[in-house]
Design goal:
globular; about 15% strand; 5 strands; 5-stranded parallel beta sheet; 7 helices; alpha/beta
């Protein structure tokens, strides 16, 4: 099973891209669990929720892999939970750091924050935070040596940008 990670800051089009790629590839995608957490809990997460959120995201990936057809599209990873933990809580705990370090994807796509920022209830903060998290994400990917591709523009433009990347990934499998 090939796994594609879609990373990016808030309101950068990750979920929209994940759904479109899954449809194009005839497979399934794993929605961001954080969104469900915020909706069901009626609050933003606390520091002690971070590992639970990241591990639930991975559990959802494992569950979805049974329905996937060769490729699983993952709307975020534990790495984003690490970044947000650092931003909001001053760091990540050891179990979350270990979880992020042990999780690998076959292709990592990053959605640039070049679309209009849209408020979304409790889950999104501001354009300034979106830009900050985006820069931190790129720095973190570089520090970890994770190859990635930054996608720009509209959904249609992003799909065009991903086509050769997915073709190469599928050809290598």
């Amino acid at each position: 099973m090939l796994r594609v990670a879609i990373l990016g800051a808030e309101s950068s089009g990750k979920s929209t891209l994940a759904a479109a790629l899954a449809e194009r590839l005839g497979t399934v995608w794993v929605p961001e669990y954080l969104r469900e957490f915020v909706e069901t809990q009626g609050r933003v997460p606390l520091a002690q929720d971070q590992f639970f959120i990241a591990s639930t995201q991975l559990a959802r990936e494992r569950e979805a892999s049974d329905a996937a057809h060769g490729v699983l599209i993952c709307d975020t990873t534990p790495l984003m939970t690490v970044l947000y933990s650092r931003h909001y809580f001053g760091g990540e705990d050891a179990p979350l750091a270990a979880l992020a370090a042990s999780t690998h994807y076959d292709l990592t796509l990053v959605t640039a924050p070049d679309t209009p920022w849209v408020a979304d209830g409790l889950q999104r903060e501001s354009e300034a935070v979106r830009q900050l998290i985006y820069r931190q994400l790129l720095d973190e990917l570089a520090a970890r040596g994770i190859a990635h591709h930054v996608l720009h523009g509209s959904l249609a433009q992003r799909l065009v940008q991903t086509a050769p990347l997915l073709d190469a990934l599928l050809a290598s499998a």
